[in-house]
Amino acid sequence: MKLVLMSCSNIGTTNYKLRIITSVFNKLVDTIIEGAIRAIELLTRGDRDVLQVMMMTLLVSGTATAISVVLGVPLGLWLALTEFFGKQVLNSLVNFGMGLPPVVVGLVVSLFLWRSGPLGDLELMYTPTAMIVAQALIAFPIVAGFSFAAILSINPKLRWQLLSMGATPWQANLLLIKEAKLGLIAAIIAGFGRVISEVGASMMVGGNIKGQTRVLTTAIVTEVEKGNFDVAMAIAYILLIVTYSIVVLLTILQHEKKVL
Description:
Elements: H1 2-45, H2 48-81, H3 87-98, H4 102-113, H5 128-152, H6 158-164, H7 169-179, H8 181-197, H9 200-206, H10 216-226, H11 229-255
Helix pairs in contact: 1-11, 2-5, 2-8, 3-5, 4-5, 4-9, 5-8, 5-9, 6-7, 8-11, 10-11
């Protein structure tokens, strides 16, 4: 009799756990579906707040990526082609920066831009400019590191061959960059992907101010804090759409053909 009761109790407990798991799973699926529907509604309706946040995201992350490319590609090229004392140390610092936590970058930028900081008089704290600076610092070592690897993957004798054929150092470098296009665009994709998805530095230096410094990632955090998980999921879908669209464009440029 006791064995029967214990067996029934175990079955009841198992069924109760299964009901809880099923309920949680169904709620999760419902939230995902509701988020997708809400994202479509926000995009088709042309919601002003969502469009403003999207444009701010593209402005901040796009500008930061462009700055990191302008600074990172030449540094990667220089590291790959030049031998000098301390090269390994500098290379290790670049590699270290590739994994630097964004929140640490945000903290350092905040210390410089805060009112009592060295650059406090510029009043850049809680502005898109501060966010661009922070994100550029995050993407810069990534672009430099990938560029360094891309240039190293080319035949090391190619530059000397170009120079011996009468090319100037600038022309030789430009031809090397063209030859390493696949790797260099991969560097841009990696840098852009890192900054458009980061939230810590943007929150610290931007303040997540509605209509001024709010971007898609910080908007997601805000909606989660409010308990609006369907809205947060909708914004997450929009972030994925924006990111994928940019990556597709860069991939087409990388391979010079349509990529789906």
